[in-house]
Q: What sequence folds into this?
C-alpha cells in the first residue's frame, strides 16, 4: 500500500509540474489518468517488494547516453540526406538479441527505433534475433557491435 501511495504522489507531482494548468477539466483528466495508471500498475503486480526487472538508479544514465546517440544519429541522417543517394543504402538485417527480460527487450527495441535511421521491425525471441531496418549498413554495424545491447543489459543488473 505504501508503494502505491508513493507512486500516486510521484505521478501527481510529475503531472502538475508538466501541466501547470489548474482548469477543472484538466484537473479531472489528470486525476483520471493518475487513477488509471495506479490501478493498472497495482493490477499488473508491478508494485511491491518483488525484483524489479530494470534498475531505476541506472536508468537516468542510460537515457542520457541514449539522448547523445539520438543527436549523433540525427546528424548522421542529415549528412546522408544532404550527400545524396550514394550515402544511403537501406538495409534490413537480423541482429543478435541479448538475453534480456521482457522489459529489457522492449527498452532495447524502442531504443533502436528512437535512434534516427533505424527501426526495430520484429522481435524473434526464440531465435534470439531482432529484425532491424537501417538507412545504411553502418547502422546495422553499430548494432552488431553490441554497445546498445550491453548498456540495456547493464540496466538489468
A:
Amino acid at each position: 500500500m505504501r508503494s502505491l501511495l508513493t507512486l500516486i504522489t510521484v505521478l501527481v507531482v510529475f503531472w502538475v509540474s508538466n501541466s501547470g494548468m489548474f482548469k477543472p477539466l484538466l484537473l479531472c483528466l489528470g486525476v483520471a489518468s493518475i487513477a488509471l495508471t495506479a490501478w493498472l500498475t497495482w493490477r499488473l503486480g508491478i508494485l511491491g517488494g518483488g525484483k524489479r526487472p530494470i534498475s531505476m538508479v541506472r536508468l537516468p544514465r542510460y537515457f542520457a547516453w541514449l539522448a547523445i546517440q539520438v543527436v549523433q544519429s540525427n546528424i548522421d541522417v542529415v549528412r546522408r540526406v544532404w550527400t545524396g543517394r550514394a550515402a544511403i543504402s537501406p538495409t534490413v538485417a537480423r541482429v543478435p538479441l541479448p538475453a534480456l527480460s521482457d522489459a529489457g527487450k522492449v527498452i532495447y527495441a524502442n531504443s533502436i527505433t528512437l535512434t534516427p535511421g533505424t527501426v526495430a521491425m520484429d522481435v524473434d525471441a526464440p531465435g534470439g534475433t531482432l529484425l532491424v531496418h537501417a538507412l545504411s549498413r553502418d547502422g546495422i554495424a553499430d548494432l552488431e557491435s553490441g554497445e546498445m545491447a550491453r548498456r540495456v543489459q547493464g540496466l538489468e543488473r
Q: What stands out?
A: The first strand starts at residue 91 and ends at 96.
